[in-house]
Amino acid sequence: MYLIINCPSCGKIIMASTANRTKTCPHCGSKIQIFNAKILAKAESTQDALEIIQHLKQRENTDPHPVTFKKFRA
Q1: Which of 11, 22, 56, 73 is the least crowded, having the fewest Cβ atoms under 10 Å away?
Q2: CB 38 within 8 A of CB 4
Q3: Spatial contact of 25 and 7, defined as CB atoms under 8 Å apart
């Protein structure tokens, strides 16, 4: 089984196998205790896990409240 977790150091979404206790984040190099991390989802296969990660990243990139700036005159 695979867990989809957030890296507590950099916040990136990563996949980890439940066969291991720790995982090194490929983004920041932080060593993560898998079962102490925030678990976002579980998957039976790597393919399922990759699909879940893609879906989560799409949701993350779709901001319902985009930042807008007002223009000021000088």
Answers
A1: 73
A2: no
A3: yes
pLDDT in tens, 16-61: 999 999 999 999 999 999 989 999 999 999 999 999 999 988 887 7
Q: What confidence tier does 5 reach under pLDDT thresholds 50, 70, 90?
A: very high
Residue labelled with tokens 């439940």: 18
Q: What is the pLDDT of residue 65?
A: 60
- Return the domain boundaries, the chain: 2-46
Integer CA distances (angstroms), 69 to 18, 60, 62, 64, in order: 45, 21, 18, 16
Which DSSP helix (H) or strand (E) runs through 16? strand 13-17
